[in-house]
Amino acid sequence: MQGYTREELEKIIVSEAAGDRILPEKGEHCPACDAIIPRFLDLPPEQEAMVRAIDREGRRVEAIRKLRELTGCPLAWAKIWVSHPTGPKPEHTRGNTSPCPYCGKPLRTDQAKQCFHCGADWHHGAV
Q1: Average pLDDT of 26-47?
Q2: Are 4 and 39 in contact (CB under 8 A)?
Q3: What is the mean pLDDT of residues 99-110?
Q4: Burial of 60 (C-beta count, 10 Å sphere; 0-12/13-18/19+)
Q5: CB-neighbour burial class of residue 125 (10 A; exposed 0-12, middle 13-18, buried 19+)
Q6: If pLDDT is split at 50, 70 and 90, which confidence band does 94 have?
Q7: Cβ atoms within 10 Å of 46's Cβ, excluding its own
Q8: Rg, C-alpha atoms of the chain
C-alpha cells in the first residue's frame, strides 16, 4: 500500500497554505465515510502506538496535534487518521436497504431524513 513521506507532506502543506485543499489519495478507503485514510511512511510503529494510546485515553485533540508534529501532515488528514484507529469501517447501513431518493446510496436508518453520503436533507419537506 502506498503512503506519504515527510517530504511529500511538506509540499502538500505549502500547497494548502497557497489556498489549495488537498485530500489524501494514498492509503486505505473507508466505505463508511468515503475518506482515504492516509498512510505515513515515516511514522515508526512505536510513534504510531504512542499517538493511538493518547487517543484511547480520550485525548483526541492531543493525539491529532502529536500526529501532526510527528508527520507534518495537514490538520484534516490527522483528523481522518485519528478517527480510524483500527482502519476502515464497514459501510454503515444498520440492516436498512432503503436508498437515498437523491443519490441512491443506502440510508442509515428507516427514519433517515438526511443522506450521509450526498448530504441531501428532507427534514422540513417532502422528497
Answers
A1: 94
A2: yes
A3: 83
A4: middle
A5: exposed
A6: low
A7: 7
A8: 17
Give the model's pLDDT for residue 32: 83
pLDDT computed for residue 16 by the predictor: 84
Residue 125 has pLDDT above 70, yes or no: no
pTM of the model: 0.71
Residue type, 77: W
Question: What b/e string do you get for 100-121 counting C-beta neighbours within 10 Å, with b at 16 or more?
Answer: beeeeebbbeeeeeebbbeeee
Count of CB atoms within 10 A of residue 42's CB?
15
For the chain, the straight-line distance linking the first and the last C-alpha, in angstroms and rounded, comes to 41
**Residue 127 confidence (pLDDT):** 55
Q: How many C-beta neighbours within 10 Å does residue 122 have?
A: 14
Who's near 55: CB < 8 A, 6+ residues apart?
63, 82, 85
Task: Name the 3-class secondary structure at 47.
Answer: helix
Between CA 76 and CA 102 the distance in angstroms is: 27
Alpha-carbon gap, residue 16 to 22, rounded angstroms: 7
Q: What is the number of other CB atoms lying within 10 angstroms of the CB of residue 64?
A: 22
